[in-house]
Amino acid sequence: MKAAVVVFPGSNCDRDVAVALERAMGRPPVMVWHKDSDFEDVDLVVLPGGFSYGDYLRVGAISAHANVMREVKRRAGKGVPVLGICNGFQVLTESGLLPGALMRNKSLRFVCKDVGLKVETGQSLFTSRYETGQRVTFMAAHHDGSYFIDDAGRRQLEDREQIAFRYCDERGQVTPEANPNGSVANIAGIFNSEKTVLGMMPHPERMADPVLGGEDGRAMFEGLVEALS
Amino acid sequence: MTAEPNPEITPELVAEHGLKPDEYARVREILGRTPNLVELGIFSVMWSEHCSYKSSKKWLKTLPTEGPQVIQGPGENAGVVDIGDGQAAIFKMESHNHPSFIEPYQGAATGVGGILRDVFTMGARPVCNLNALRFGDPEHPKTRHLLSGVVAGIGGYGNCVGVPTIAGEVNFHPAYNGNILVNAMTVGLAQADRIFYAKATGAGNPVIYVGSKTGRDGIHGATMASASFEEDSEEKRPTVQVGDPFTEKLLIEACLELMETDAIVGIQDMGAAGLTSSSFEMASKGGAGVELDLDRVPVREDGMTAYEIMLSESQERMLMVLKPGREDEARRIFEKWDLDFAVVGQLTDTGRMVIRKNGQQVADLPIDPLAEAAPEYDRPWEPTPAQPEIAPADVPASEDPGAALERLLGSADLCSRRWVWEQYDYTVMADTAQRPGGDAGVVRVRGTNKALAVTVDCTPRYCLNDPVRGGMQAVAETWRNITAVGGRPLAITDNMNFGNPEKPLVMGQFVGAVKGMREACAALNYPVVSGNVSLYNETADTAILPTPAIGGVGLLPDLSKMATIAFTAEGEAIVLIGETRGHLGCSLYLRHLAGREDGAPPPVDLAAEKRNGDFVRGEIEAGRVTACHDLSDGGLLVALAEMALAAPDEIGAEISVPEGTDVPPLHAWLFGEDQGRYLLTVAEAGPVLEAAREAGVPAAAIGRTGGASLNLSSGHTIWLQQLRDAHSGWLPRYMQSDD
Question: Does the keyword tRNA processing apply (chain A) (predicted)?
Fold first, then answer.
C-alpha cells in the first residue's frame, strides 16, 4: 500500500501521521507539498491536522483552494480513499468533499483531552478493525471542532450510515456531557456517501503507541493497510 | 521619502530613553560627540536592563555553568546539554511579564514565540514548551481577565506552531496584582555537531533578513521592560507586539531546512530590541563590523524612519550571516515557505556598525563598546532579615485533618490546573509520554527509547521570607521533580523575576536567591546553562514576591522505566523517603489554616537531597517502584491525595500515623513542608526499606493503597469523592466555566 500526506503551510500533524502510517505500512508515506498540482498514484490520501494558513479567514478555507486540493478532489471523485484529521476534516468540509461545517467550540476555548468515541459502523475501509458500537479513546485537540449540519442534513447522514464516530462517555453512552465541543448529535467524524472519504476531529495518530497513553488509533491505520494492500 | 527626524538631544530626551545622566556621559565619551536620535535610541535599548543585565551581571557570573554534560552555557541564544548518542537538548526560559500585564493574550503569545526562536535559531527542533505563571489575588478584579488571556495566548501560539505545552506552574498571590509573571520555556533537540551560534564572522559575508516584515510595533519594548509600572501602565499598550504563530511555524521549517545545508555562518533571532540587538550581538561575538542598508529591510508600511526600523520589535524575524555565494540557495528555501528574504548588508572589518537609509549614513557606532562595555552596576543590597523558625506546637492543630486537606486542595494554590492545561495542545508531535499534572513532563526523543523530563518550579513565598533558602529550594525542587519521574537531572535555565534593583532590599533578594541557587547547583552537579532576568516588576512602589523560576531538564535513558504519581494498584506498600520534622513555617497550611505567611521556610539539606534523590531514582530505574511523587506544597497528606486522585479509578490508602514523644504532632506530620522527601509505592516495603537503610536514606512504610478514602490510624476518614470535587472544581468555578 502507498499513502500520501499533504503538507499545507501550517500543517503540524503531518509528521505524526506519517509515523503512524509508516508503522502500519512498513514504509513511509509520500509527503505532498500544497503547491503541487499532481503527485504519484497512491492508495490513500491523508490531510493532516494543524493550522493550515494559520486558520486565518476561516478554518480550512484557504487550504480548500490550494493547488493540491484540485487533484485530491479529482482522485476522491474516482474513489481514492481520503482521510482528513482535525484541520484535514475542516479542509474536507470547506472543499465540499464532506457536508456540514466546523465551528468554534461551544466553550470558545481550545480543548485538548482524551475523548471517548462510539464507533457507529465497523463497515468501512477506515473502521473495519472496530466493532460497530465499540468504544475507543482518541485525542481531541482543537479550537474549531463543533460540527454543524442542519436537521435535514443530519437525518440524511443518519439514514445513509454516514456517521463514523460520536463522542461518548466511559460506558459508551452518547450524552451531552461527553460532547467536548458542542457538535450536533455528538458527531466526531463522518463519511461521504460512498464511505471512501472520512473526516474526523479527534486524532487517531496520537493514540497509536502505548507510550502516548493508548493504542486505539492503531487499528484504523492497520485496517486501512489490510483493506488497501 | 521621509526625512530622518533630527531633534536636538536634550536631557529630557535622554531621560525619556531611560538613560541615566552618567550613562549618557559615557555615550558621549565613547562617540567623542553627541549622538543623533537613531544612535541614542540604539544605546538606550542596548543598555536597557533587559538587554544588558547591568544590575544582575555581577551576581549571575557566580553561578555554576560547567559540567561534562554542558556543550554551551549562558551567553548564547540558549543553553545546550549533551544527551548521548550525538544528540543535544537545547533550552531556555524567558519572561514576557510587562507586555502580558498590559495585553495578556498577545503578551503571552509573543513570549512563547520569542523563546521558540531562541531555541530553533540554534538548530534545534522545538519539542516541548513549559511555562511559569503568577497572577494576583483571585479576588482582584483583573485576575480572571489576565489568567484567561494569558492561557489563551500561550495556547493560541504554541498550539498553532505545533509544539506541545507539557508542564508548568500557576500561582496566585496579591503581590502580583500589578505585575503578573509570564515565563515561557522551550526545549529543543539537535544533533550535537550541528549547532548554530550567534556569531558573525568573515568580512564581506552577506547579512540576511528573513521572516516577517518590520512594522511599527513594539518600539521600545525592552525599555518598557526595564522600568517599573506607574498607575498608567495600560497606556503602554502600543509597545506590545502582536504575534503571528503561522509565520513562526513557516520560519521554523524554513530555518531547519536551510540548516541542513552548510550555508549559515551565524544566526540569531530578532527578539527584544529587534534588529539592533541581533546585529550588535552577532557582530560583537564574531569581532566583525557591519554595514546595514535599511532601505532593503522588508517593511510593513511606508515612511518608516531608521529609528523605527532599528528599534521595532516586530515578531517572527531572524538575522543570518551566510557564506558568500549561498544567497540564492537560501532564498529559494524561504520563498518556498512564502517568507521574506532580503540581503540587508554585509560584514566588514572595521569593528563599527554603519547604518544607511535613503542613501545617507544615519548612524556610525563602535560595536564592542556598545555591546560589551555596557554599564555594569554593583548595586547596594541588604539581606532580608531572618524570620523566626516556627515550632509545630506554635501552629494551632486543625481538629479535622480531612477538612484541612479539603480546604487546601480546594484552594487557588493547590487545586487542579486542568482548566489551564486543557487549553494547551500537550500531545501534538506524538511523543508526549507524561502529560501535565504529574511531577514533570516527559517527551520521548523521536525514534529512540530515551526521553527528556522537564519541569518549572519556584516557591516565591519561601523566597520572600528567606531568599537564600528560597533560591536553593527552587533548584532542588526541579531536581526532585525530574528524579520523581525517573529522570537524571542535567541542567537548568533560570528566569529571575524581581522588583526594582535600585532598592537595596530588592537587590538583596536577588543576591540571596543567586547564592542559594549557586549552592544547590554546585551540590547537585546541576549547572545553569541559560537564563533571563526581569527586574522592575513593581507597580506604584509595590514589588512582586522574589521569583527565581527554575526550569530543569533531565534525561530518562530508558523510557519504559518512567514513574508517574498515580497509585497503580490496591494493596501496595506506601513508603515515605526523607526526614519528616513537621516544618510549618511559611507553609500553605499556615497560610490557609492560620492566615499567616510568616516564618522561616524549610531548610534544604543538599547532601540529604542528593542522597535521597539518587536512591529514589535508583529504585525507579531498577523497576521496583510503581508510583512516585515528590512532597512539596502542602506536605505529605496533599501528596497522598494527589496520588490517590490521579489513579484512573481513584485508589485510597490506609495510613499509620507515627505516635510517640519524639515525632512531630499530627498536623505537622501531615502538612509540614520538609524538603528532600518522596512517596513511593512498591509491591512490598521490605526490600526498599533494607536498601534505604544501607544507603543511609531515611525511609518508613506508612501504609497501603486501597479503598475509596484516605484512612488515618488517628481515626480520621477522608473520602476521595469529596476531595475530588474540591480539587477539580475550584478553577472552573472561578472562571465561571460552563462545562
Answer: no
